[in-house]
Amino acid sequence: MTISPITKQLFTERFLKTVLRAPSRFNLPASSLRFSLEQLTKLIPQNKSVKVRPIRLAGLRAEELKPQAHSTQLIFHIHGGAFFLGSMNTHRAFLTQVAARTQMQVLHVDYPLAPEHPHPEALDAVFDVYCQLLDQGVLAKDIILSGDSCGANLALALALRIRQEQLPQASGLILLSPFLDLTLSSESLRYNRKHDALLSIEALEAGIEYYVPTGMDRSDPSISPFFADLKGLPPVHIQVGSKEILLDDAQRFKEKAEQAKVDVEFKIYTGMWHNFQMFSAWFDEARRAISDLSDFAHRLDQD
Fold first, then answer.
1. What's CA 63's distance to the chain center, in Å?
2. Can you tell me which residues form the catalytic site (predicted)?
3. Boundaries of domain holding 251
């Protein structure tokens, strides 16, 4: 029996709301939510054509995901999870799909999570990884910074740190379902509250409480890069689903980046929820999103 796309989507949304979003609305320990996410992402199939090699970078556990073709381009992806969830385990399968579609090497790391490691430890860790890549002879023009959800926050904050330290800048930024404003001032947090199948406001609030040190202003650009001066950033590719509670984070950032004369490519995917790209095995819009980010990455390679 063939299942219609709308039936498949409705089933998936109900499943995600039950196993992940609903538990995140209660004051459960971080360890419990981490376990739930690890179990959920085991359902995502890995692309077997991509070779996974464990390495260490800047003292962190890391993995190289190598496709069949050889490319000098490297996508450094920072996983999401509201600053206290996620790991290489949760994102490996998704990133093998990215590596297979782009035919570029993908690198990801297990950076330190809150609450055990509040700001700025995660940002410091990914900055150290970037510096080590440069030290190893990787050219900045061959590095694309990428991240989903809070990982997009860290990827953008990393680009700002690179600019601040006057290091060679990465060639581009890929921001998937970005969480960029920790003051939670986006209107979509309210009007999409019941529509986003994966992410709850409570999960964001928990992440902020865990991640932001006591007394620190939530509008500080190092934790809310939406409020940063964006001038001089490399080209940015932004993806967001129309049902996301973070829809306005993405739209507002796009407008601000354009005002700063940043080259921005912005995509909204109809009917999609937070981090929908991870479900490319089942949904056309998710496959299209990976194809779109691949096209962006290859345009950077041609510049």
1. 16
2. 149
3. 5-302
Catalytic-labelled residue, pool 24, 87, 146, 149: 149
Cα–Cα distance, 48 to 46 (Å, whole number): 6
Domains held by the chain: number: 1
Report pTM: 0.94
The CB density around residue 72, as the number of other CB atoms within 10 Å, is: 12
Residue 87 is a catalytic residue: no
pLDDT tens string, the chain, 303 residues long: the values are 566 777 777 767 776 777 666 566 657 788 888 888 888 889 889 999 999 999 999 999 999 999 988 889 999 999 999 999 999 999 999 999 999 999 999 999 999 999 999 999 999 999 999 999 999 999 999 999 999 999 999 999 999 999 999 999 999 999 999 999 999 999 999 999 999 998 999 999 999 999 999 999 999 999 999 999 999 999 999 999 999 999 999 999 999 999 999 999 999 999 999 999 999 988 999 999 999 999 999 999 776
The answer to whether 79 and 86 are in contact (CB under 8 A) is: yes
Q: What is the CATH number of the domain that holds 131?
A: 3.40.50.1820
How many beta carbons lie within 10 A of that of residue 17, not counting itself? 17
